[in-house]
Structure formats: structure tokens, C-alpha cells
Amino acid sequence: MTEIGRVLSQSTLYSELGKQKRPQSGAETGGRAEFIAVTDAQALLGFKMLSETEGIIPALESAHAIYSGAKMARNMKKIQDVVIYVSGRGDKDIQSVADELPRLGPQIGWDLRF
Fold first, then answer.
1. How far is CA 108 from CA 27, 54, 102, in A?
2. What keywords are annotated for this sequence in UniProt (predicted)?
């Protein structure tokens, strides 16, 4: 986000988000929320984390939030809660994840070779 509140374009692992003609804007520019940048490798960690611990394959959009939520939770008190809204379904993203693992997997210790 720029100093005047404009949302900047970003490259993303999630192909549909990358096809947008311009960044979307809305309430996020009103200073009422905090946004955390997540790399593609970190999004894959979120994807892996939820898949392995809960058996839920998240959509890549949600994988970004899962990683951020887990990171935030590490610095919170035990009586505090984190709520992450997981939308979509990740089964449609399996091929995208598989395609990116040769590039991003070594960064996060995720190797599917047998």
C-alpha cells in the first residue's frame, strides 16, 4: 500500500488474483485493518500446515491467511483467539502447488520426491 492508501499490484502464486486488471480497494484503505505480506513460499507453508494438521486442503487465498494467523498466534497470550475464515476449496489448487514445489519447496523444507 502506498503512503496515500493506494493498493499496489503484486505477483502471486494464485493465478486468478494475478489476472486482475487493477488492484482492488475498499475498506482496507481506511486504516481499520492491518495487513501482513506473505510470500508464495509462506503461503505454501500455510497450505501444508492446515492440510497436515486438520486434513483440510485450503484454497491458496486462504493459505496466505493461515500462515499469517499462525505467525500472529505465536506472539499472543494463551487466552486470546485467532479466527481465520477459510473460503474456497484447495483441491482445485493442487496442480498449482505441485508445479511450484520444485522452485519453492527447498525454501520451506517440503520435498515430495520418494
1. 33, 19, 11
2. Pyridoxal phosphate
Q: What's the chain's Rg over C-alpha atoms?
A: 15
Domains of the chain (ranges plus CATH)? 38-108 (3.40.50.1100)
The grid cell for 102 is 520444485
Please check whether residue 75 is in contact with residue 47, taking contact to mean a CB–CB distance below 8 angstroms: no
Q: Is the pTM of this model over 0.90?
A: no
Instruction: Determine the Cα–Cα distance for residues 13 and 75; give it in Å rounded to an integer.
Output: 27
Q: Note the helical H segments in 2-93.
A: 15-18, 40-54, 60-73
Closest CA to 13 of 35, 38, 34: 38
**Cα separation of 71 and 77, whole Å?**
13
Q: What percent of the chain has pLDDT over 70?
A: 70
